[in-house]
Amino acid sequence: MPEYISVEGLREDGRRANELRRVEANVGMFPHADGSAYFQQGDTKVVAIVNGPKQGVGKAGDAGKVVCDFEMAAFSTTQRRKPLRLDRKNAELGSKIASTFESAIMTDLYPRSQIEISVQVLQADGGVLAVAINAVTLALMDAGVAMTDFVCACTASVIDGTNVLDINHYEASAQGPELTIAVLPSSSTIVMAEMKSRVHGDLYAGLQDLAIVGGTTLLPLLKKAVHDRTRAMLPCLGPAA
Amino acid sequence: MADEIAAETFKKVYPREFYSRFLEHNVRPDGRSREDPRPCAIAPGTITSSDGSCLVTLGKTSVVCGIKLEFADPPLDNDNVGWIVPTVTLPPLCSDRFTPGPPPAEAQRLSEFITDIFCSDTMLDKHDLCIIPGKLSWALYLDIQCVNYDGNVVDACVLAAMAALQSVTLPKVELPSDLSDLEGLPSIDRSAGHALNLKRTVTSCTFAVLDDVLTDPCLEEEDLCSASMTVVVDDAGSICSMCSPGDSNAEDTRA
């Protein structure tokens, strides 16, 4: 049986149980989109772009609509994924991201309009949904879409009786329950929670707390990325009025 | 400030004229001369989940190529070769001119072009991809994903595919002694593989005709040009492939 956590309490990649993977963020690198961001957590690499708010398609509602197109590169996973035109898994993740952000974006401010999100996963090494949500948050900030708060997402799992944060692909193969949570850190509101396996009720509370802590820890990192971008944009305003 | 606005407006209203004014002085609006290509960066091995990969940026254009190796049945017409399957994807994310849905014609054209270059026997012997004749072969999936579409994606794709192929390690396959009872798939040893035996190294260069011949056109130039042409050359200096899409007259091609 493979060992996921060593006797010293270190994980396969050298992290402690409650430690996040290395984060790298890059905001606003694409000029053709209203907002764009690259977010990398460990070896999971995601690019997200945002277009809009633009004229809504279909039934005009009083609140703005959020749509999300989610795609994974064929080489992103260990087993090559055949690119399908209607990939249900991608469609599911896309709709999850859209509904997550519908609760964070002030949609009332954008009546009869639509905000389009595109997500492209370049490499999947666990926690794809969480990393995608973090990337989309940054892209939305870059697009200047009004949001109540940052949306920070993180995964948590239980391996050999220990709660671990931000699992990678190898640790996901331990078949533990994987919980993905997206939070609005300032109010600690959960805007999305996903778990696809059975877990004992006693364990759940601990997992949820850990994932929320993980999400909150990400906040300063996301903030820094947005601040860096804003600072870089400042000279574009011209001399101060 | 007013001049800047005037220049922007001029560019929007008369884009062709705007370019001509620059080209008269042998300079392009981004500061390059006619012959200069944009700065290019090649980073092999960026996608660790693949068997070979490369990220190429050419100015603002960037593409990622990832290669996955899988076991496959040999082709029916020739049972001691393997497969090479190149695909170029232009997702809606890379440019606002692509929409979600079926692959755009441009992506299919690029896929065909890459297939023509990399699936020929002069590039690599497909017998190398055979594991057990008639039973098992390698399928080499070469997927190219465009991340940012800012003109001359062809050159970036060729560079990325070439560098990714060079970084591939064909894993060693451990076969059971008795081939007749091949149950399931044989085990592989990624640490003991060998590199692909590539016969040559190719690079491509694209030119656009816009008053004069411009090397490595960016998206604006591609949209304005009257003709464009891609020439693929190998390390021995011979031309492997040439492609001139769209309408162009012989005069332009000769230039």
Automatic annotation (TrEMBL), chain A:
<dbReference type="GO" id="GO:0016075">
    <property type="term" value="P:rRNA catabolic process"/>
</dbReference>
<dbReference type="GO" id="GO:0071028">
    <property type="term" value="P:nuclear mRNA surveillance"/>
</dbReference>
<feature type="domain" description="Exoribonuclease phosphorolytic">
    <location>
        <begin position="19"/>
        <end position="145"/>
    </location>
</feature>
<dbReference type="InterPro" id="IPR050080">
    <property type="entry name" value="RNase_PH"/>
</dbReference>
<dbReference type="InterPro" id="IPR015847">
    <property type="entry name" value="ExoRNase_PH_dom2"/>
</dbReference>
<dbReference type="InterPro" id="IPR027408">
    <property type="entry name" value="PNPase/RNase_PH_dom_sf"/>
</dbReference>
<dbReference type="Pfam" id="PF01138">
    <property type="entry name" value="RNase_PH"/>
</dbReference>
<dbReference type="GO" id="GO:0005730">
    <property type="term" value="C:nucleolus"/>
</dbReference>
<dbReference type="GO" id="GO:0071051">
    <property type="term" value="P:poly(A)-dependent snoRNA 3'-end processing"/>
</dbReference>
<dbReference type="GO" id="GO:0000177">
    <property type="term" value="C:cytoplasmic exosome (RNase complex)"/>
</dbReference>
<dbReference type="InterPro" id="IPR001247">
    <property type="entry name" value="ExoRNase_PH_dom1"/>
</dbReference>
<dbReference type="GO" id="GO:0003723">
    <property type="term" value="F:RNA binding"/>
</dbReference>
<dbReference type="InterPro" id="IPR020568">
    <property type="entry name" value="Ribosomal_Su5_D2-typ_SF"/>
</dbReference>
<keyword id="KW-0271">Exosome</keyword>
<dbReference type="InterPro" id="IPR036345">
    <property type="entry name" value="ExoRNase_PH_dom2_sf"/>
</dbReference>
<dbReference type="Pfam" id="PF03725">
    <property type="entry name" value="RNase_PH_C"/>
</dbReference>
<dbReference type="GO" id="GO:0000176">
    <property type="term" value="C:nuclear exosome (RNase complex)"/>
</dbReference>
<keyword id="KW-0963">Cytoplasm</keyword>
<dbReference type="GO" id="GO:0034475">
    <property type="term" value="P:U4 snRNA 3'-end processing"/>
</dbReference>
<protein>
    <submittedName>
        <fullName>Uncharacterized protein</fullName>
    </submittedName>
</protein>
<feature type="domain" description="Exoribonuclease phosphorolytic">
    <location>
        <begin position="149"/>
        <end position="200"/>
    </location>
</feature>
<comment type="similarity">
    <text>Belongs to the RNase PH family.</text>
</comment>
TrEMBL record, chain B:
<dbReference type="InterPro" id="IPR015847">
    <property type="entry name" value="ExoRNase_PH_dom2"/>
</dbReference>
<dbReference type="InterPro" id="IPR036345">
    <property type="entry name" value="ExoRNase_PH_dom2_sf"/>
</dbReference>
<comment type="similarity">
    <text>Belongs to the RNase PH family.</text>
</comment>
<dbReference type="GO" id="GO:0071035">
    <property type="term" value="P:nuclear polyadenylation-dependent rRNA catabolic process"/>
</dbReference>
<keyword id="KW-0271">Exosome</keyword>
<dbReference type="GO" id="GO:0000177">
    <property type="term" value="C:cytoplasmic exosome (RNase complex)"/>
</dbReference>
<dbReference type="GO" id="GO:0034473">
    <property type="term" value="P:U1 snRNA 3'-end processing"/>
</dbReference>
<feature type="domain" description="Exoribonuclease phosphorolytic">
    <location>
        <begin position="38"/>
        <end position="171"/>
    </location>
</feature>
<dbReference type="Pfam" id="PF03725">
    <property type="entry name" value="RNase_PH_C"/>
</dbReference>
<dbReference type="InterPro" id="IPR027408">
    <property type="entry name" value="PNPase/RNase_PH_dom_sf"/>
</dbReference>
<dbReference type="GO" id="GO:0035925">
    <property type="term" value="F:mRNA 3'-UTR AU-rich region binding"/>
</dbReference>
<keyword id="KW-0539">Nucleus</keyword>
<dbReference type="GO" id="GO:0000467">
    <property type="term" value="P:exonucleolytic trimming to generate mature 3'-end of 5.8S rRNA from tricistronic rRNA transcript (SSU-rRNA, 5.8S rRNA, LSU-rRNA)"/>
</dbReference>
<keyword id="KW-0963">Cytoplasm</keyword>
<dbReference type="GO" id="GO:0005730">
    <property type="term" value="C:nucleolus"/>
</dbReference>
<keyword id="KW-0698">rRNA processing</keyword>
<dbReference type="GO" id="GO:0034476">
    <property type="term" value="P:U5 snRNA 3'-end processing"/>
</dbReference>
<dbReference type="InterPro" id="IPR001247">
    <property type="entry name" value="ExoRNase_PH_dom1"/>
</dbReference>
<keyword id="KW-0694">RNA-binding</keyword>
<protein>
    <recommendedName>
        <fullName>Ribosomal RNA-processing protein 43</fullName>
    </recommendedName>
</protein>
<dbReference type="GO" id="GO:0016075">
    <property type="term" value="P:rRNA catabolic process"/>
</dbReference>
<dbReference type="GO" id="GO:0000176">
    <property type="term" value="C:nuclear exosome (RNase complex)"/>
</dbReference>
